[in-house]
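User: We ran a pulldown and think these components assemble together. Before we commit to crystallization trials, I'd like a predicted model of the whole complex to look at. Sequences follow.
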Amino acid sequence: MTKHQNNKEQAILAAAKEEFLDKGYDGARTTSIACNAGVTHAMLHYYFKTKEQLFERIFHETMGMLVEGILEVFAKTEKPFKQRMAEALEIHFEVIKQNPRLPLFMIREVASRPERFAVIKNVISTFAGNLLATMQKDINQAASNDEISPIDATTLLLDMISLNVFPFVVKPVYEAATGLDLNADSAFWEQRKAENIELIMRRLTPTQDSSQFIVHSS
Amino acid sequence: MTKHQNNKEQAILAAAKEEFLDKGYDGARTTSIACNAGVTHAMLHYYFKTKEQLFERIFHETMGMLVEGILEVFAKTEKPFKQRMAEALEIHFEVIKQNPRLPLFMIREVASRPERFAVIKNVISTFAGNLLATMQKDINQAASNDEISPIDATTLLLDMISLNVFPFVVKPVYEAATGLDLNADSAFWEQRKAENIELIMRRLTPTQDSSQFIVHSS
DNA sequence: AAAAATATTAACAATTTTGTTAGAATTTTC
DNA sequence: GAAAATTCTAACAAAATTGTTAATATTTTT
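Assistant: Here's a predicted model for the assembly, 436 residues in total across the polymer chains.
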């Protein structure tokens, strides 16, 4: 009757994504994936020869999503730099919020298998070079107008990513420490987003003596 | 001749720490640990009945170090709040820098095995309550003197930890993306530390209209 | 509807990984 | 230095996990 549409393959992919995101490559079990997908274990090997191949499929998809999401953030207009940055922060935060497990997934897999560097390198360096160069140009211009404090684009980007991503990465630990359930606490995330914007905006605002507080290490 | 000092047990512990920090519980192999420790595989099970027990030993030790390190940061004097905060940031950053793999280790293990929440909860909540309360009192006092902008202690703490910890957590990805070797790049870490202090100092500095830049989500 | 291609199953095989055991060697205690 | 406790070894066992295969069912093509 109904056309054959490989819905088992899709079910396996969906279950695999869950499993890999949750437990990482090493913790994931192909039997568990097959079971959650409602198919026999042999089917998994029929569609995806090995666990590694199945993982790679998920890894690429996931990386793609993350990078698309970040790209979207910086495809921006001609407003003042500070305002663009505030909007980028907000969009970036929301992208992460909608895919809160992706960052830890990526970090974990790259950390435990450096051979996956290559994928990351390709995906990111394709556009990161342009992005950073463009951003630095905008920064320099805004700084020369005294619109903002001068800053290195890479530095600013890492500020932004640290502030926006880390809370999601550390969420399980935070919940363990406080006993709170952050999924049910939308006020927490709204406050966090506002705080991150506040921090970066203050960072960019020109001051008379911008490095008065820097402490030099022994 | 020499007294018997369980140096095999120590060797196993050292190798286990390496293995677990590097690969996580799921990726670690007891055979590999025994091999790196230069002992037979059976010895591992002689001293530590199971992989789980060996892991727990390492996990506790590691958590202890991390918490001690952070405690040390806040056992501070009577200087102005901003200066104390700058010093705390610097010390905190250095503690992480000397144990750069601990944060990801903790995050990874708690994320993939929520039953380890209990350990974290005990260790942290023992002192975090006092810390936060004390900090909030200091903040309120400094704010009432117009020394700093008012801020929630929890928020400030998460700002600090995000900025200081995330660069170490994301290091492998950063290296994959840029092709740099950050271990050999002490200038990078000095700059990062300075940037984090700059950010927090600006966040604490009073302004006329401190929330002018907050963007509200749709 | 027959032939061809594809999807599915159940049972099995290979490997990896953790854990055990019985006994030998060594160290410590008395 | 003999007895007791302990450290250690080598071989083995059990379980889990990934991967295969041969036969069967279903779908698609002609």
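Chain B touches chain A through 67 residues (CB under 8 Å). That may be worth checking against your pulldown data before setting up trials.

User: Thanks, that helps.
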